[in-house]
């Protein structure tokens, strides 16, 4: 646990622990939903997240329409 505490940058700790202690661990709002709370539901945002995700290799071209499960 001590190693984890030392690896967190001080600036991040200041952001997570505000001085007023009213909203403990309040994270900043992501850029994608600052304008609209439902922006994350769009196909464009879903595609962006899939391409930026950990396993973007799973994306494949649709071979048959309508899709069938294998």
From TrEMBL:
The keyword Cell membrane is annotated on this UniProt entry: no
Pfam families: Lipoxygenase
Signal peptide: none
Name of the protein in its database record: Lipoxygenase
Taxonomic lineage from the root: Eukaryota, Viridiplantae, Streptophyta, Embryophyta, Tracheophyta
Top-level taxon of origin: Eukaryota
UniProt GO MF annotations: metal ion binding; oxidoreductase activity, acting on single donors with incorporation of molecular oxygen, incorporation of two atoms of oxygen
PANTHER family named among the record's database cross-references: LIPOXYGENASE
Keywords: Dioxygenase, Metal-binding, Oxidoreductase
Record-linked InterPro entries: LipOase, LipOase_C, LipOase_C_sf, Lipoxygenase_dom_3
Boundaries of every Lipoxygenase domain copy: 1-70
GO biological process entries: lipid oxidation
């Amino acid at each position: 646990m001590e190693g984890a505490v030392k690896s967190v940058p001080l600036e991040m700790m200041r952001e997570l622990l505000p001085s007023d202690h009213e909203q403990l661990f309040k994270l900043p709002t992501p850029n994608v939903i600052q304008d609209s709370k439902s922006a994350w539901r769009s196909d464009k945002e879903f595609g962006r997240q899939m391409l930026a995700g950990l396993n973007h290799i799973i994306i494949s071209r649709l071979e048959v329409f309508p899709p069938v499960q294998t």
